[in-house]
Design brief:
Largest sheet: 9 strands, mixed
CATH superfamily: Gcn5-related N-acetyltransferase (GNAT)
Helix content: 25-40%
CATH topology: Aminopeptidase
Distance between the termini: 33 Å
Strand content: 25-35%
CATH class: Alpha Beta
Number of strands: 9
CATH architecture: 3-Layer(aba) Sandwich
Structural class: alpha+beta
Number of domains: 1
Length: about 180
C-alpha cells in the first residue's frame, strides 16, 4: 500500500508501488519526455529504478514519488528526493530533487506545484540542510523552474557526463538551502 507524502491543489504525491513501472513505461517514457534524460528506457530499467526508490523510502524515508492527478486519478509524472549518486558529481551524497511531467500536461504548472511539495518534504520531515537539482545546460525549462523556485546556480558543481549525447553532456546544478526556502514563504 502506497504512502501519501503530500497533496497539492491538483496532485497526490505518493510512494512508488511495484505495479507503477508499467504505467510509467506507458505514460512517461516517451521520446519527448525523456529527451534530456538519455532517451526512453527499457521496462526492466524502470523496474530497477522503482525497486531502488522503494528500498530508499524503506531505509531512508525519502525517494521519488508518483504524481497522481486528483481530477482524473491518472499518473501525470514523478518527482522526489534521492542522493546525488553520479560518480562524476563533486557533491555526491547531497539531497537531490528531480521531476518529470507527462507531455500532455506540460505548461500547466504541475511541475512547480509538485516540486514545491517535494522541497517542503525535504526541509520538513526529511530534514535536509540543502537540496540540489541537476539538469543539462540545454534543458532550459528545467533550469528556469529551478530559478523560479529560488534555487541558486552553482557553477562550482558542474560536470561533464559522457553517458549523455554532446548537447546534454554538460550537467549543471542549482542549490537551495533550508533558510533560503524559509525566507520565500
Amino acid at each position: 500500500m502506497a504512502d501519501i507524502i503530500a497533496e497539492t491543489d491538483r496532485l497526490i504525491l505518493r510512494t512508488i508501488e511495484e505495479s507503477d513501472a508499467a504505467e510509467q513505461y506507458r505514460l512517461l517514457n516517451t521520446q519527448a519526455v525523456m529527451a534530456r534524460l538519455g532517451g526512453p528506457k527499457e521496462l526492466h530499467e524502470i523496474e530497477a529504478k522503482h525497486a531502488k526508490a522503494m528500498q530508499w523510502y524503506a531505509t531512508r524515508g525519502f525517494s521519488f514519488l508518483m504524481l497522481i492527478e486528483k481530477e482524473t486519478g491518472e499518473l501525470v509524472g514523478h518527482a522526489g528526493i534521492k542522493l546525488v549518486d553520479n560518480p562524476l558529481a563533486p557533491n555526491q551524497g547531497d539531497h537531490e530533487i528531480g521531476w518529470l511531467i507527462r507531455e500532455d500536461r506540460w505548461r500547466l504548472g504541475l511541475a512547480e506545484e509538485a516540486v514545491r511539495a517535494v522541497i517542503d518534504w525535504a526541509f520538513g520531515r526529511v530534514d535536509a540542510p540543502h537540496v540540489v537539482a541537476l539538469t543539462s545546460e540545454a534543458n532550459v525549462p528545467s533550469w528556469k523552474l529551478m530559478e523560479k523556485l529560488g534555487m541558486v546556480r552553482r557553477e562550482d558543481l558542474d560536470f561533464d557526463d559522457p553517458d549523455y549525447p554532446p548537447e546534454d553532456r554538460r550537467t549543471i546544478q542549482y542549490s537551495l538551502t533550508k533558510d533560503q526556502w524559509g525566507s520565500q514563504k
